[in-house]
Write a structure and sequence with these properties.
heterodimer, A: alpha+beta, Ubiquitin-like (UB roll), DNA polymerase, domain 1, 2 domains, five-stranded mixed β-sheet, 6 helices, 5 strands, about 35% helix, B: alpha+beta, Aldehyde Oxidoreductase, domain 4, 3 domains, seven-stranded mixed β-sheet, six-stranded mixed β-sheet, 19 helices, 27 strands
Chain lengths: ~160, ~750
């Protein structure tokens, strides 16, 4: 029996019908709400491409059951972080550094980095590399990603 | 950087003519982004490769759409194609849009592989654009009553050189069609006049990718679409004996369990339901143990039947010269079975409508896939349309085409559009693999230590770069190819050096453990690894500096230049390897390597710096230097991005990657069991490009992978005095090798 839920996504209240409380948040965001930012990469919490912010923290939405969300939890996806008219500083830095190839992992890179900069506004390079250690990139864009985060932090 | 405006294109069909429409506002971009451009089959746009209209359409609004058979796999070629066309047509970059890989709209320029997108595909577009520009000048000449050489084209307008009113391209070609054959003699722009080619233009796709506005294949949706997951056999050759459909009867929104031969899948309304159903579905499969024992893989390869020998080079008399050599060396190298490792598992959508099949796919070869899908379904190729939508990077032929085959089979079975999303385990387990490569080498040195004789034997599967059979067709017993297509893996088995007596032979094997395909830089990477590492063994035996040793045997000035330049930027110190003191806890060394890609194009030289922990055998590559000469560079920043990626991906392959398997199937089904390099270990890549604007452009994306494994092997030897000849150089292997000394 489908259960109606209310989610706070990118500052908007969204009502969704979920027929399985185990449904990971990722599927609700992508399939029910039509968002493209969070991406399916592994479904195992290993690669980071599904990363979203929940109450400001970077969370792997592919292993986060939608029923496990705290009431009123504020979910922010890459779309909500910033858009073409108002880029988040991390997004702007990724464009400036041309820090993408296929870009499939980039959602996770940006969401993870934005969460890092919230807590540590001026991380050094080793801290950035460590913070992104669980985010996989296959194209090999790592150096540009690190530079983009440094740029966003104003430490480049 | 010049930033092109965010542009989306939509293709509409009006009155039988193709209308190319554009919208620029961000709002429109957002509104449209759920649906990739789709035009209905049946309009008259040509796709033949000898027609200008196949490659480009002049819009009534002054914009031009390029139709490219080569597709952007995340490499940035879309932007480079736009640069090439805008340059040739004298248009600003933001007035050029690119449609890619749609079998109904784009010419068949061959699959997007082999580092040929710019070299071949881009040059075809350049020639079409040059032909179009010449025609525009001619049309303007007729209208203005001035000779064509008194006119110039600029900013989408042809006007008199002497000044005065010009005519817009759109006015010159009213319906946007030129009805013109591509003129191979049409003069292309002189490189001295380039304003866009050779510039680091910002990539068209990146703003959308970093804001979540980009539509990947995995995001695409079609009205009425349902979801599916495949259930693969637990062992590759197992047969499906029975399926207990009751085991999934309670899954909400289940539409159907589809079974055809050994093909099994679940189709549901909701995507998560498909994941659950695939997990829960109970099926019985026969036992199958057709794979070799993993720890006897190389004996298995050596024992595999050879169907033919390809002699890839033969100079002098290698056998006789080996017999007369002052000193001989002999070694065997191996390179493990590798996977592509796409971050996003493959995905495709198929829809049957009115006897026609449409397949949305991230395939690198939509025209070839169309034929495969036609063969599989019994449809005429003309009734099949494949539409490219960019997916996760594939680095060769991964699972994209197979997901398309799955979707087609399922769409036919349920009569609705079906989206198939592979799981992580599907991708790791069932994408075709880079085959195991085993190489035996012998060299004979003369009194001065020079290589006087070289003989090598490569044990690699037979076949070339054709169509890789589709998993669904194979499992379901539908028509499919029965030959192997591992890519053109004999390339770079021959040497780029002037050695008097050489014989290089590829023993082509009748089989290989897994369905093979090309991973990035197929064969060239594995073969160059053995050649350049073994050459380093010769240099060490001769007591020579590895750079000087190579330069001595190299006659090609462009090759000499990349080697000298990489030595310069890496601050190479001339001395023989290994270093004098190999006794510390952390050992450091450097290694050099060189390739002339396929012996007829791009030159690359590289230097790896490495650190080895003696106690653990752990290897790190803190820095990697590359110099590349790929002729004319279209977008330097794009080339640098490709080289960064290629080096980092290959360092990962060399240090840690290996497909694990038991007697039945792949067992490394996730990122824990098939780890790839992560941020803390990623090297700094230092790149220097040699741009030759007046030359032809050559492949840029693949060649640099070829030099990475040998540069690391050579650096390891330099640091430790121990030669590693088995990729990956895992801590266990390195530690064992160090302890054996």
């Amino acid at each position: 029996m489908a259960q109606e839920m209310s989610l706070d996504v990118n500052g908007h209240a969204a009502r969704v019908a979920v027929d399985d409380p185990e449904t990971p948040l990722l599927y609700v965001l992508r399939d029910d709400l039509g968002l493209h930012g969070p991406r399916f990469g592994c479904g195992l919490g290993q690669c980071g491409s599904c990363t979203v912010h929940i109450d400001g923290r970077a969370v792997r939405s592919c292993i986060m059951p939608v029923s496990g969300l705290k009431p009123g939890a504020k979910i922010v996806t890459l779309e909500g972080l910033g858009g073409p008219d108002k880029l988040h500083p991390v997004q702007a830095a990724f464009i400036k550094e041309q820090a993408a190839q296929c870009g499939y992992c980039i959602n996770g890179m940006i969401m993870q980095s934005a969460a890092l900069l919230n807590e540590t506004p001026k991380p050094d390079e080793a801290t950035i590399r460590q913070a992104l250690a669980q985010n996989l990139c296959r194209c090999g864009t790592h150096q540009r990603i690190v530079r983009a985060v440094q740029r966003a932090a104003g430490t480049l | 950087m010049n930033a092109p405006a965010l542009s989306r294109r939509s293709l509409l069909l009006q009155g039988g003519a193709l209308v190319v429409g554009f919208s620029l506002s961000a709002r429109d971009a957002l509104a449209q982004q759920t649906f990739a451009p789709v035009a209905t089959i049946g309009f008259s746009k040509p796709i033949a490769t000898d027609q200008v209209d196949s490659f480009l359409a002049l819009g009534a609004d002054g914009r031009v759409t390029i139709f490219s058979g080569k597709v952007d796999l995340g490499t940035g070629v879309q932007t480079a194609m736009a640069q090439i066309a805008a340059e040739e047509l004298d248009l600003p970059l933001d007035r050029v849009a690119v449609v890619q890989g749609d079998t109904a709209l784009t010419p068949d320029q061959g699959p997007t592989y082999g580092s040929l997108s710019i070299q071949k595909g881009g040059m075809e577009i350049r020639q079409a654009a040059a032909t179009a520009r010449a025609r525009l000048l001619q049309l303007a000449s007729e209208r203005l009553g001035l000779p064509a050489d008194a006119l110039l084209s600029e900013n989408g307008v042809v006007r008199p050189r002497a000044g005065g009113q010009g005519i817009d391209y759109a006015d010159l070609v009213k319906d946007g069609r030129l009805d013109l054959k591509v003129d191979p003699a049409a003069k292309t722009k002189d490189s001295t006049a380039f304003t866009l080619v050779g510039k680091s233009v910002a990539r068209i796709d990146i703003p959308e990718k970093v804001t979540g506005r980009f539509t990947y294949m995995q995001d695409h949706r079609v009205p009425g679409m349902v979801h599916a997951r495949v259930v693969r056999p637990p062992a590759i050759g197992a047969s499906l004996e029975s399926v207990d459909e009751a085991s999934v009867a309670d899954v909400p929104s289940l539409i159907k369990v589809v079974r055809q031969g050994n093909f099994l899948a679940v189709v549901t309304e909701k995507e998560w339901a498909a994941v659950k159903a695939a997990e829960r579905l109970k099926a019985t499969w026969s036992k199958w143990e057709g794979l070799p024992e993993r720890d006897k893989l190389w004996q298995h390869v050596r024992a595999t039947k050879v169907t033919k020998d390809d002699v890839t080079s033969s100079t002098g008399d290698a056998r006789a010269a080996l017999g007369q050599a002052a000193r001989t060396l002999e070694a065997s190298y191996d390179f493990a079975i590798h996977t592509h490792g796409s971050i996003g598992p493959s995905c495709a959508i198929a829809e049957f409508k009115d006897g026609r099949l449409t397949c949305w796919t991230a395939s690198q070869m939509t025209h070839a896939l169309r034929k495969q899908l036609a063969a599989m379904t019994g449809l005429e190729p003309e009734a099949v349309r494949c539409i490219y939508i960019e997916g996760s990077g594939c680095y060769g032929r991964n699972g994209h085409e197979d997901a398309a085959g799955d979707a087609v089979l399922l769409a036919r079975a349920v009569g609705r559009p079906v989206r198939v999303q592979w799981s992580r385990a599907d991708e790791h387990g069932w994408d075709p693999k880079g085959p195991p490569t085993l190489i035996d080498l012998k060299a004979g040195l003369d009194e001065e230590g020079r290589v006087a004789a070289w003989s090598s034997q490569f044990h690699v599967p037979e076949g070339a770069a054709g169509n890789v059979p589709l998993v669904a067709a194979d499992l379901a017993g539908l028509p499919h190819e029965t030959t192997m297509s591992p890519g053109n893996i004999i390339q770079n088995s021959a040497l780029p050096y002037a050695i008097p007596n050489v014989r290089t032979v590829c023993h082509r094997l009748a089989s290989t453990p897994f369905r093979p395909s090309w991973i990035r830089t197929p064969g060239r990477m594995q073969n160059t690894y053995a050649n350049e590492a073994f050459l380093d063994e010769c240099a060490a035996a001769a007591g020579a500096d590895p750079l000087e040793y190579r330069l001595r045997a190299l006659k090609d000035p462009r090759g000499i230049e990349v080697l000298k330049r990489v030595a310069e930027i890496a601050k190479w110190q001339a001395r023989p390897s290994p270093v004098r003191d190999v006794s510390g806890d952390v050992l450091r060394g450097r290694g050099i390597s060189y390739v002339k890609y396929e012996l007829n194009r791009t030159y690359v030289a590289g230097v790896a710096e490495i650190e080895v922990e003696r106690g653990t055998g752990r290897v790190r590559v803190p820095r990697f230097f590359v110099v590349q000469d790929c002729g004319q560079i279209i977008n330097p920043d794009g080339v640098r991005n490709q080289i960064d990626g290629n080096v980092i991906q290959t360092v990962s392959r060399v240090l840690m990657e290996e497909v694990m398997f038991d007697r039945g199937a792949v067992t490394s089904l996730d990122w824990a069991s098939y780890p790839i390099i992560t941020f803390p270990d990623v090297p700094e890549v230092v790149t220097d490009l040699i741009d030759r604007p007046s030359e032809k452009p050559w492949g840029a994306g693949e060649p640099s992978a070829a030099i990475v494994p040998s540069a690391i092997s050579n650096a390891l030897y330099d640091a430790t005095g121990v030669r590693l000849r088995s990729v990956p150089f895992t801590p266990a292997k390195v530690k064992a090798a160090l302890q054996a000394t």
